[in-house]
Amino acid sequence: MRKKGDLPEKLCAFCGRPFSWRRKWVKTWESVRYCSERCRRQRSPVEDCAGRTD
């Protein structure tokens, strides 16, 4: 069992707050960018298209 302080952390791409790994993200941790559904919904559409090479 890991201690809470030992879990990996990331910064939210929208609000900039740090958030810790959650068990539900065990398979998708590399692609998680937002700390919550609220931040994910409020992201700017320009941000999503910026990395595209279409």
How is the topology of this model organized?
Blueprint lengths: L8 E3 L6 E3 L16 H5 L3 H6 L4
Antiparallel strand pairs: 1-2
Q: Level of helix content? A: 10-25%
Q: Which structural category do the helix and sheet elements fall into?
A: alpha+beta
- In spatial order, strands of the major sheet run 1-2
Number of helices: 2
Overall number of strands: 2
Order of H and E elements = EEHH
Task: Please explain how this structure is put together.
The structure is a single chain. This protein has 54 residues and is of the alpha+beta class. It contains two helices and two strands. It has a two-stranded antiparallel ribbon with strand order 1-2. The longest helix has 6 residues, at 45-50. The N and C termini lie far apart (44 Å). The mean pLDDT is 82.
Keywords:
single chain, 54 residues, alpha+beta, two-stranded antiparallel ribbon, 2 strands, elongated
Compose a concise summary of this entry.
The protein is α+β, with helices and mostly antiparallel strands. It has helices spanning 37-41, 45-50, and strands at 9-11, 18-20. A two-stranded antiparallel sheet has the order 1-2.
